[in-house]
Design brief:
alpha+beta, Fructose-1,6-Bisphosphatase, Chain A, domain 1, D-Maltodextrin-Binding Protein, domain 2, 2 domains, five-stranded mixed beta sheet
Length: 254
Amino acid sequence: MAAAARAAEVHNEGHEPGHWVATRASPADLSRAVEDEASRKIFELIHHHRPEDAIHGQDWDDRSGTSGIRWIVDPLDGTANYYVGYPAHAVSIGVYIDEEPAIGVVHDTAQGIVYVGSIAEHAHAGDHRLTVKSNVPLERAMLATGFAPIPRYREIQAQVLAHVLPRIGDMRRSGSPALDLCAVAAGRLNGFFEMGLPEWDYAAGRAIVAAAGGVVEVVETPDDWPGPVVAAGHPDLVAHLLEMGEAAGIPLLR
C-alpha cells in the first residue's frame, strides 16, 4: 500500500496548477512525466524493502527475482483519462506468489479510494468489505469493457461487441480496467469482459475480485487476435461470458 500511496501523491501533484509550466510541452508530456515519476517511486520502494522479488511493469524493464514473489505494476492506469482530466485513473499493483495472484492494491487517484484484496483474507475499500454480486442471467448483467488502442484490434472488438450487446443488460466503459475490476469486486457491476489487456492492467484487480468472492479468468487467443481475454465476476457468470465470447467468434485457447 505504501508504494501505491507514493505513486498516488505523484498523480495528485501532476494535477496541481504549478505543474503546468513551460517545461511541459503538452498534457501528454505531463502524463508521461507523471508515469515516469510514479514508476520510479514504486520501483525504489519495492527494491528497498524486497530486493529479492521480481518486478514486472509497464514503464521499466522486467527485473528478475529469486524469492518466488513477483510484483506487477501499472503506475498510471487510465492514462488517457488522466491526460484529459476525466476522473477514472489509478495506481495498480498486484503481487503474485509462485505465479498465483495473492494480493492486489488499486488506488483510485481521482476519487481517493483505495481497494485492497488478499486471497488469504478478503477485499475491502476502507472499512467496507467487498463482495461480488450474486449470479444473474446474461440478459440482466451490467458489464464493463474497454478497447485496445490498435485500430485493427478495435475493429475486431467492435464486431464482438455487436454480438454481445443485444444479449446483455448493458455495458459500461471507464477507460481504466483496474477500476472496472474493482467495481466488480464492490458489486457495482456484475462482470467484466475485455480483450487484449496486458498483465499490469488486470493483475491487481484479479486478486481483489477473487478476494471478494469472484473469479477472473485469463484466456489466451491466437497471435492474430487481441489477447488475452479477461472475464471477471461471479463464477457462473464468467463461464457464460466466455461461452458468449466464443459464440461471438473469439477463438479462445482453452
